[in-house]
Structures are given as structure tokens and as C-alpha cells.
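Write out this protein's structure.
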Amino acid sequence: MEEIAPVKIGPKGIAFLLIVGLGAWWIPGTGHWLIGQPKKAAIIFLSILSAFTLGIWLGSIAVIDAGTPWYWAQMLNSPLVAYFAHLSSSLNLESYGKPREIGEIYTAIAGMLNLLCVVNAVYLAHNLNIKKAD
């Protein structure tokens, strides 16, 4: 059985992977845009933004509450969610019942979908680095 040699990535490659990963987290779809897939980037951006916005619309901005476990899934959308949580708590906004629950679910699912897209963008960027190294 033949062994596969590990692929070494230089410092430039790791920096590129970090830029792609952080960019994809800050603005959904940016990672795919950076690796040259603008159509996929637009689909990701619109899909995640639509789900997140729908969750905010259904339950108000009060669904983003740093005191709930849903907050960590919501934070996967973007670091801007921390600002929304601050805004929500400083204005003493509250939301109750089913609309809040549905809004939390939509915003959290949007965050988890963004995490999948971040991982996919970094993986595709890594594959581009491997192809360039060959």
C-alpha cells in the first residue's frame, strides 16, 4: 500500500486561508468571492442574510440576547451580531412567546449555515493552494 506524503503549506498559504475564513465569517459569501466563485458567494450571502433578517423580523432584534445559548449559534453569522446584542440589551428590548422562539431558531440556523460555508470556503482555498503547489 502506497503512503501519501503530507502537503506542506507555506506561510503565504496559511495567511490566505485565514483571510478567506475570517472574511467568510465577517460577511457571509466573502470567502467564496475571494477564491473566485462570485455566483456561489452571492447565493450564500442572500440565503444567509435572508434567513437572519427573517428571524429578526419575526421575533424583533431582542432575539439576539447574549444571555441565551442561542447567542453562540447566532454569533456564527458575523461579529456584527455582538453589536446587535449590545443594542438589544441597552435599549431594554424584550420579546416573548412563539415569535421569539421562531426568530431565535431562524437566526441560529443562519449562523450554523454560515459556519458550513466558512468551512467550505477554507477547504476550497486549501485545495487551490495544493493545485498551485503542484
